[in-house]
Design a protein that fits this description.
Layout: E1 2-9, H1 15-21, H2 28-36, E2 41-49, E3 52-59, H3 62-77, H4 81-84, E4 89-92, H5 94-104, H6 116-130, H7 136-155, H8 158-161, H9 165-177, E5 185-188, H10 192-204, E6 209-213, H11 216-226, E7 229-232, H12 236-240, E8 245-248, H13 259-263, E9 268-272, E10 289-292, H14 294-299, H15 307-358, H16 364-393, H17 399-408
Parallel strand pairs: 5-6, 5-8, 6-7, 8-9, 9-10
Antiparallel strand pairs: 1-3, 1-4, 2-3
Helix pairs in contact: 5-7, 5-15, 6-7, 7-15, 15-16, 15-17
Length: 429
């Protein structure tokens, strides 16, 4: 099996496209099952966040796997495959490993160095584990990606400059409001993004701070944790008229902030951090209403962290990719080595049968001695070359040694045939 990652992010798609691609948490298990029932897909993990949708998969062929994944994404999103292709990036084998490690380290985030992606990746891995769509390859990839992300934040200063999307959004909002200090704020949504928003706003010194959610209990708990005020969702319109800034991060499938609702609340700055968007498309041009959504944030990306910090993380990623690929090549050659040893045992067994038929006078003890001696000789002859081929297989280009063994000894090893030809890939990520 080979690794394949296919996705779209703020780099390749606008919010409208990401909205259509976004997979709600309760829809992930069914999507995972749909993926692993495709002909070329054996394992799958789905990562869906506010600014990226990615599928990591173990596939038996590049073109077949890519076709399967694109077909599923097209069917789920309603975007024709021909249109979807323009927004996707594709990484194969080593490039897929490198991409997953860069994502976990925050190097591919809208706000470089942000740590929120680690939690999102952990949730994606957990969902795949629960759905039984992660096999040995996905388990190893996800575990190593999470470890690399932790290393990046523990061993470098990448997160000193890196912030959450919320922090970046507040910087843009501050440019419109002049200052956040003392501004009244309403947070709509009490999920992970809502909680992060309240924590960030509290540190920024805003006040008063309100929170509302369709589930009043969750809003009450979140408000109590941060000294904010919980607002009944039925009183949303009144709350909008009483604040300077709104941070909306719900999981609603339809706009929460309609044009009429915002017209009645102007003037107001709205941070729409939800995907799908919470602000209705026709509400973005309302007088006195400033809407900052994920597209706006992409246009106002923070400057990159210091070159030394980024370079240090890239060095960690490069080293970890090398280790992972060595492990992967080692696992690829293992079935070939096992098949070679099994072939040798079969040959010895067949020859012994011939010998016993010619020499029925051998006692059981003599037969045992001859059998053990022949097996030891063959195993000793195979020991050095099989150890060496494992070592060579761990080096770049090592797959050729396993292929050579299969060719020389005419070994039939399941899943060991070369995948179909792979063109230039790793496009627009």
């Amino acid at each position: 099996m080979n690794l394949l990652s296919v996705g779209a992010s703020y780099r390749t798609a606008d919010v409208g496209t990401l909205e259509r691609l976004t997979i709600a948490a309760d829809e992930v298990p069914a999507l995972l099952q749909k993926l692993i029932t495709q002909p070329y897909v054996g394992e799958a993990v789905v990562l869906s966040s506010c600014n990226r949708v990615e599928i990591y998969a173990a596939v038996s062929g590049f073109h077949g796997g890519l076709g399967d994944i694109c077909s599923v994404l097209s069917a789920e999103s309603g975007i024709p495959a021909s249109e979807l292709a323009a927004h996707l990036y594709v990484h194969y084998d080593e490039a897929a490993v490198r991409h997953s490690f860069r994502v976990s380290a925050g190097l591919d985030s809208m706000v470089v160095g942000e740590a929120q992606i680690l939690g999102q990746l952990r949730d994606a891995y957990h969902a795949a584990t629960e759905a039984d769509s992660a096999g040995r390859l996905m388990h190893e990839l996800m575990q190593q990606a999470l470890r690399v992300g932790k290393r990046a934040h523990a061993e470098t200063g990448i997160d000193k400059a890196g912030q959450s999307v919320v922090t970046a959004a507040l910087e843009v909002a501050e440019s419109h409001l002049g200052t956040l200090d003392g501004k009244s704020v309403l947070v709509i949504g009490a999920g992970a993004m809502g909680a992060l928003s309240i924590a960030t706003l509290t540190r920024a010194g805003v006040g008063p701070l309100r929170v509302t959610n369709r589930s009043a209990a969750r809003a009450d708990r979140l408000a109590a944790a941060y000294g904010a005020t919980a607002v009944d969702f039925e009183n949303l319109d009144a709350a909008l008229r009483e604040v300077d800034l709104v941070v909306s991060a719900t999981a609603a499938t339809a706009p929460v902030l309609t044009r009429a609702r915002l017209e009645a609340a102007a003037p107001l700055v709205v941070l729409d951090l939800a995907v799908p968007r919470d602000v209705a498309p026709d509400a973005t041009g309302v007088d006195g209403i400033t809407v900052i959504d994920m597209d706006s944030l992409a246009a106002h990306r923070r400057a990159m962290p210091a070159a030394a910090e980024t370079a240090a993380v890239e060095q960690i990623v490069a080293g970890e990719v090398g280790h992972f690929m060595a492990w992967l090549r080692g696992t690829d050659v293992a079935p070939t080595v096992a098949a070679l040893r099994a072939r040798a045992d079969d040959v010895v067994t067949a020859e012994l049968r011939k010998l016993w038929s010619r020499r029925p006078d051998f006692t059981d003890e003599q037969r045992g001695d001859v059998s053990r001696t022949l097996h030891r000789v063959v195993q000793q002859l195979l020991h050095s070359p099989t150890v060496r081929v494992r070592q060579l297989a761990a080096e770049p280009g090592g797959d050729q040694y396993a292929a050579l063994l299969r060719e020389l000894f005419d070994l039939d090893v399941p899943h060991a045939t070369q995948a179909d030809a792979v063109p230039e890939i790793g496009g627009k990520a």
